[in-house]
Design a protein that fits this description.
277 residues; alpha/beta; four-stranded antiparallel sheet; 8 helices; binds adenosine-5'-diphosphate; binds magnesium ion
Amino acid sequence: MEEKNIVIELKGLTKRYGYGDTESFALKDFDLTIKRGEFIMIMGPSGCGKTTLLNIIGLLDRATEGEYYLNGEDVAGISARRSAKLRAKKIGFVFQNFNLIEDLPILENVALPLVYTGMPKTARLKDASNALSRFRLQEKEYYLPSQLSGGQQQRAAIARAIVGKPEIILADEPTGNLDSRSSKLVMDELKAIHSEGNTIIMVTHNPSLTVYATRVINMLDGAIDTDIKTVADQNLPQPIDVKIKKKKSEKKEKEEVFISFAKPSKKKRKKSKRRRK
Ligand SMILES: Nc1ncnc2c1ncn2[C@@H]1O[C@H](COP(=O)(O)OP(=O)(O)O)[C@@H](O)[C@H]1O
Ligand SMILES: [Mg+2]
């Protein structure tokens, strides 16, 4: 696989807390290369550095030492402003506790990441609405998060994570607070997003979920213990529309959103209808 397919490259990443006697390492000399279209599951005991790793990859946190390249760009030392911009454009987050804003309707929660794109509000709400219908939540648009079940809230959170078409989805124990039926629905959605060529990095404690992954990484004490690819690089899903560039007409943008979020193939549509029954 060519270089351009590398989305994330970490070299010698170290995250240290404290100094001297209180010094501890959440990550230690961590190396990892992630290719476009991988679905990576990260496992490991509590405290081994999984959340720290995800937060650094998601530009929510910084390493103490080491290199981080995102789509080839050195992002280890970039400004807070630049990292916020990159994050909004390239990265979608899903958290264990959903992290929806309680006093905002679902629709506005999902539209939030688009605020940074400069799109007009009506267009943002339209995209959010399309994303919600993909997750069969169109009838819940005006509900508050507390009026939805856990599974529905997490699906709304996934809609929020993908509404800006970020290409990298980071999920920290997204099914940790869900029953098995809701977990399955959430995993099926992540699987569909992955099959469109997106890169997913997910932390989980549940070994049975690794069937969805193309690669399983076990961490121990801030380092990689085992790293197993279950799908060969050449068999990873190809991106459906990576060629989205800045200058595009409003109309074209809507079309793309429609294609990649709102309108699964006929086959898939039938399937999801069946699933709803
Ligand atoms: N703000 C912090 N200050 C000090 N230590 C921290 C901080 N955040 C995390 N840690 C430590 O870093 C280690 C890794 O934490 P974390 O990444 O949350 O682990 P995991 O997600 O695998 O449970 C833990 O030992 C934790 O106590
Ligand atoms: Mg954690």
